[in-house]
Amino acid sequence: MTTLSRPGLPTRASPRRGDRAFVLGTRGFGFLIIAILIGIGVVLLIDSWPAWQTFGLDLVTGTQWDPIRELYGAVPFIVGTLYTSLIALILATPIGLLTAIFLSEFADRRLATPLTFTIELLAAIPSVVLGLWGIFVLAPLLRDTLDAFLISTLGWLPFFAGPSYGFSISTAGVILAIMILPTIVSLSREVLRSVPNAQREAMYGLGATHWEVATKAVLPYARSGVIGAVILGLGRALGETMAVTMVIGNKDAVPVSVFEQGQSIASKIAVTFNESTGLQSQSLIAIGVILLAMTLLLNGAARLLVARTTRGPGR
Amino acid sequence: MTITSPRRLGALALVAALAVGACSSSASPSPSATVEPSMAPSAEPSMGASAEPSAAPATGPTIPAGDGSLTGAGATFPAPLYQVWFENFGTINPNIQIDYQAIGSGGGIKNITEQTVDFGASDAPMKDEEIAALPAGSQILHIPTALGAVVVIFNVPGMTDLKLDGPTTAGIFLGTITKWNDPAIAALNAGASLPDADIVVVHRSDGSGTTNAFTAYLAAVSDDWKNGPGAGKEVQWPTGIGAKGNDGVAATTKQTNGSISYVELQYATQAGLSSASMKNADGNFVQGSTDGVTAAAEAAAPDFPSDFRQAPIINGAGPDTYPIASYTFLLVYADQKDEAKGQALVAFMHWALTDGQATEKDLGYAPLPAPVQQKTIDELHKIMYNGAPIWGM
Question: How large is the ipTM?
Answer without folding.
Answer: 0.81
